[in-house]
Amino acid sequence: MEAQIKVGRIFGIQIEVHYSWLFIAALISFSLAGHFGTAHPAWG
Question: Measured at the alpha carbon of residue 30, what is the angle toward residues 26 and 33, in degrees to the nearest 5?
Fold first, then answer.
C-alpha cells in the first residue's frame, strides 16, 4: 500500500505527496480562515 498521492510529472520526475500533507494543509487553511475572518470583516 502506497502512502503517497500522485500529483503529476515534471520533466519526467514523478511528483507525489504524502497523504498527511493534505491533512496538515486543511488544518492550516481552517485556522487561517478564522484569523482572516476576524482581521478583515469584508472577507467573511
Answer: 135
Confidence grade of residue 1 (pLDDT, cut at 50, 70, 90): low
Identify whether the C-beta of residue 15 lies closer than 8 Å to the C-beta of residue 9: yes
Strand partners, 9: 14
Cα distance between residue 27 and residue 14, in whole Å: 26
C-alpha cell at 12: 519526467
Alpha helix (H) residue ranges in 1-44: 19-39
Tell me the pTM. 0.59
